[in-house]
Structure formats: C-alpha cells, structure tokens
Amino acid sequence: MAVSTSSCFKATFSFDETTVRRLADASARLARPKSQIVREAIIEYHSRLDRLSDRERDSLLRAFDELAPGIHARTRAEVNRELRDVRRARKAVGRRGRTRQ
After folding, report:
1. Is 101 part of a structural domain of the chain?
2. Is 98 part of any domain?
3. What is the pLDDT along the chain (101 residues), one digit of tens a residue?
4. What's the sign of the alpha-carbon dihedral 71, 72, 76, 81?
5. Global pTM?
6. DSSP per residue over the chain, as a string?
7. Under 8 Å between Cβ of 2 and 11
8. Counted domains in the chain
9. Who has the most CB within 10 Å: 17, 23, 70, 87?
10. Residue 25 falls within a domain, yes or no?
11. What confidence score (pLDDT) does residue 50 get?
12. Domain span including residue 80
C-alpha cells in the first residue's frame, strides 16, 4: 500500500535478511538514507530494462554464429545487379499485380 505525502509515497516492502543487510551496509558506507539507496537502485535497474542480459546476448551471438556461415558473400556488382533486376520487375507490374503493357 502506498500513501502519498506531498511528492513522495510511503510504501511497505518485504526484503529477505541478506537484502536488508546489504541495504544497511550500502546506507552506512555511502552515508545516505536507506530510502535514497532504494530509489537509486530502482532508477539504475529501470535504466537497464531495455538492455540484453548476458544470457540473452550469448544466445543471440550463438544464433548468429550458426547462421552467418550460410550467408553468401557477393560482390558489390552482384548486389547492384540484383537490385536493378528487382526494381525493373517492380516497375513492370501495375498497382493491382497486372503486367504493364
């Protein structure tokens, strides 16, 4: 339950003993209130939400390593020729998929 007092909210959370000791240690070392330590920790955690975890990154890198050998290397001329052919084919077809005459 959260109770508003001006721009702050008072909230109740339950922490395990290890977390409570770590919070107390951080508060003592930094000479800051525990509530400030918690606020800063939440801000830091939130800033990392869009980043990949180490496990996610490693999984994606493994997938890339498996797929990369299947990518055929082509010269710039070959790519340009393919793009030109695709553009020519698109221009040859009308809006409704019919061949232009």
Report:
1. no
2. no
3. 555 556 888 899 999 999 999 999 999 999 999 999 999 999 999 998 889 989 999 999 999 999 998 888 889 999 999 999 999 999 888 666 665 55
4. negative
5. 0.51
6. -EEEETTEEEE-----HHHHHHHHHHHHHHT--HHHHHHHHHHHHHHTTTSPPHHHHHHHHHHHHHHGGGSPP--HHHHHHHHHHHHHHHHHB-TTSPBP-
7. yes
8. 1
9. 23
10. yes
11. 87
12. 2-92
Domain assignment present for residue 9? The answer is yes
Sole residue written with tokens 């496990």: 55
List the structure tokens of 48.
């990392």
Q: What residues contact residue 10 under an 8 Å CB cut-off, 6+ apart?
A: 2, 3, 4
In which residue are the tokens 């084919």 written? Answer: 89
Q: Which two tokens stand for residue 32?
A: 């800051």
